[in-house]
């Protein structure tokens, strides 16, 4: 498979999807998300693959979410570059591609492990949130930024996050838009393990080898069972995606995006409270 924004490798029963836009802190575009979807569908149907790893290229970021430099009132522009091969997906708004990626990570009947090597911010943070397991480098930083940059994830990114870290903490994460260290993330149950950056690869490989030594059918059934209780969040996520696409067309949302790009504080004072 030929990709432009991701690296996709398969070895020893593992599939690895690496977001490969390190110069943009692995911010994603529609192209990136479509390629991730293609790779995950390949891993899903490959009977030799038992576990999937998602990570970011370089040592600075896992992913910092949607690429703000291409965001306008129409949402995020679709890349004109080579397509992933999934006909028609290029016509979907970014929020829909992001939603589809999240739903595939949740539904694929194999464990998905987030190897969080740096910033996991915004929609990038949500990708790790929906992964089955997360292993973080001591240098990783976690957070949501939507209310500061004119965006929100009112589905898995908030409702499912609350199931993981609790209501108060999830509200704090979204309302205050602060950053959290890997140690903070471990304390709130947001990641499974924190290791020195130089041990991250080894630790994830070890975890994946353990997963691969277990019964794939048992793991698949357990994953479906863990998902069952929060399945309704997909419905909320879908409605939130429609709201988000409408919100992106507003001056209020654009103020958040423009302030970020212009490296200034947003001024939301003129918008109705
Ligand atoms: C990521 C963070 C915390 C990094 O901060 P810092 O201080 O370490 O670096 P800096 O200078 O802010 O960023 C480094 C470069 O990366 C770019 C910046 O503009 C900067 O560019 P230069 O000045 O060097 O040219 N950069 C960072 N994030 C970017 C992004 N997302 N898109 C494009 N360029 C980006 C800090 O930069 C930060 O808070 N970034 C904002 C992240 C953000 O707004 N993400 C989108 C959230 S919305 C979303 O992801 C989403 C959703 O909510 C729902 C559905 C789908 C997606």
Automatic annotation (TrEMBL):
Question: Which Enzyme Commission number(s) are on file for it?
Answer: 4.1.3.36
Q: Source organism's superkingdom?
A: Bacteria
What pathway does the UniProt record associate with this protein? Quinol/quinone metabolism; menaquinone biosynthesis; Quinol/quinone metabolism; 1,4-dihydroxy-2-naphthoate biosynthesis; 1,4-dihydroxy-2-naphthoate from chorismate: step 6/7
GO MF, one example = 1,4-dihydroxy-2-naphthoyl-CoA synthase activity
Indicate which residues the UniProt annotation says bind substrate: 64-68, 76, 119-123, 151, 248, 263
PROSITE patterns linked = ENOYL_COA_HYDRATASE
List, alphabetically, the GO terms of the cellular component aspect.
Answer: cytosol
Residue runs in coiled coils: none
Q: Report which reactions are catalysed by this protein.
A: 2-succinylbenzoyl-CoA + H(+) = 1,4-dihydroxy-2-naphthoyl-CoA + H2O
Site features described as Important for catalysis, chain residue numbers: 76, 248
Q: Name one GO biological process term.
A: menaquinone biosynthetic process
Q: Provide the alphabetized UniProt keywords.
A: Lyase, Menaquinone biosynthesis
Q: What class of enzyme is it?
A: lyase
PANTHER family with a match to the protein in the record: 1,4-DIHYDROXY-2-NAPHTHOYL-COA SYNTHASE, PEROXISOMAL, NUCLEOSIDE-DIPHOSPHATE-SUGAR EPIMERASE
User: What protein family does this chain belong to?
Assistant: Belongs to the enoyl-CoA hydratase/isomerase family. MenB subfamily.
Functional summary from the UniProt entry: Converts o-succinylbenzoyl-CoA (OSB-CoA) to 1,4-dihydroxy-2-naphthoyl-CoA (DHNA-CoA).
Q: What is this protein called?
A: 1,4-dihydroxy-2-naphthoyl-CoA synthase
What is the scientific name of the source organism? Desulfotruncus arcticus DSM 17038
What gene, per UniProt, encodes this protein? menB
